[in-house]
Amino acid sequence: MNSYFKYCPIYSHDALEKEYSLINLFSNQVSFSRRDNFNDLFDSKVNFEIPSRERVRRTYQKLSGHSKRTFKQLYMGSDATKNFVFLYDEMNKILDDYLFYCLTDNPTNNLMWSHYANSHNGFCIEWDANQLKPEKVQYQEKLPSLDILELIESTIGLRSEEELGIQAWHALKVKLSEWEYEQEYRFNLGKNAKHLIAKDFGNFALVESQPEWIKSIVFGYRMPEETRNYIRSKLDNNMIFKEIVIAPNKNHLRLQLLA
Questions:
Q1: How many separate domains does the chain show?
Q2: Residue 5 CA to its chain's centroid (Å)
Q3: 177 in any annotated domain
Q4: 63/36 same-domain check
């Protein structure tokens, strides 16, 4: 994989200075989203499994001393259900805090241009795959599940927090099969990169990027020449520009380099 692409909309060609996607592009910023910001109601949603009594008992038998007594009191006593519900809420808060950037490996996807670039009026950012290492989204027929008991085990030494984090991120890379046409990849903003957040708005955050990570800007088929010239004037003279055209057979889109 040499490149990943981000489809960006332009809604008004008469007020380009107010277009959010262009402001971010010219400011060397990208918008990372939290899962509550997605248009798909099921995107990144996870089913949490309340463990069976047998599962709880097996974990209890692995413990000793104070940990064993505390575990029994919290998760095998009269307040067990209430405490599991509390953990359900806590796990959702953890997943809600993940910030990620959604990309695709296909710049000529007609549906993507229609849905995410305002019916071919917007543009694509081509990112250098040597600089950005997103992970592929898994498409399946049902939502992923996480075991609440695994969170407990990570706090009492029976499971590493790193292992739980890997499972959580894997769950956040699952979408229902109906979205498979997007060919999506996701880049997670890890804890070591939090300093790159320029402004956090809650559901999404603006994150600083490096202009040299951008390989090209791809103009949508319906983007007016005036808008193309405006974008060219705002970016470095060395930036490469491409455009989407209809292929000679009239059945698909094609990427074409601009002089």
A1: 2
A2: 13
A3: no
A4: no
Identify the domain containing residue 121 by its residue range: 1-40+102-137+182-259
Are 207 and 32 contacting, i.e. CB atoms less than 8 angstroms apart? yes
Let me know whether 76 and 153 are in one domain.
Answer: yes
Q: φ, ψ for residue 15 (rounded to 5)? A: -140, 60
In a domain, 192, yes or no: yes
Residue 201 lies in a domain: yes
For the purposes of burial, counting CB atoms within 10 Å of the CB of 12, is it exposed (0-12), middle (13-18) or buried (19 or more)? exposed
Name 143's Cβ contacts closer than 8 Å, sequence gap at least 6. Answer: 42, 45, 46, 47, 174, 176
* Claim to verify: residue 126 and residue 246 sit in the same structural domain: yes
| pLDDT by position in tens, the chain (length 259) | 799 999 999 999 999 999 999 999 999 999 999 999 998 999 999 998 888 889 899 989 988 888 899 889 989 988 888 988 888 888 888 899 999 999 999 999 999 999 999 999 999 999 999 998 999 999 999 999 888 888 788 777 777 777 778 888 899 999 999 999 999 999 999 888 999 999 999 999 999 999 999 999 999 999 999 999 999 999 998 999 999 999 998 899 999 999 8
> At a CB cut-off of 8 Å and minimum separation 6, what does 66 contact?
none
Look up residue 254 and give its DSSP letter.
E
Shared domain for 158 and 201, answered yes or no, is no
**Measured between alpha carbons, how far is 181 from 110 in angstroms, rounded to an integer?**
10
Phi then psi for residue 174, to 5 deg, are -110, 135
In this structure, the answer to whether residues 112 and 196 fall within a common structural domain is yes
Single-letter residue type at 94: I
CA distance 47 to 122: 36
Q: How far is CA 165 from CA 146, 154, 183, in A?
A: 11, 10, 24
